[in-house]
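Blinded run. Sample ID left blank on purpose so nobody reads anything into the name before looking at the predicted structure. Input follows.
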Amino acid sequence: MGTPRLHLHEALPEKRWRSIVKAISWRIIGSLDTLVLSYVVMAYIFPWLGLDAGVAKRDMLNTAGYIALAEIVTKIGLFYLHERAWVHVPWNVTTNARGGKREGMGRSAAKTFSWRVLASADTALLAFLFTGTVGAALTIGGLEVWTKLALFFVHERIWQRIPIGYHAV
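Blinded prediction complete.
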């Protein structure tokens, strides 16, 4: 016998502080990825392709840092809202032997995809604001789709193993 599927009224809702801690832990990982990726695109990929990233060589690390720092502000808020929205979606949620909430891999994959669409659009917009070039913005936003899809999925699966931060029924 497998674990039973939950209905919305049966799910153990996440406490708000759990969503906040998840948002902060993801933002640290995500901003480091953006910093490195932005710098690599401006300093190595664009010159290799013979393109201008719109930023002087001496300013590329600073510009990458500005993009990553701006992300901290925009993405913590966006991630929190994303997490709170998913709390209300009962799809692919089960209970474990101790009565705790457990999300399935399909749910983690759907959360990963929905977050990545929202977050990559935000990164592309920030990259455009700091570089002034559409090409650099789309390259940074486009490449981060792949790096962050993998990182976010792993982040979600790790958090599924942390049993704290749920309301008792």
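Unblinding after everyone has recorded impressions. Confidence is low (pLDDT under 50) at residues 6-10.
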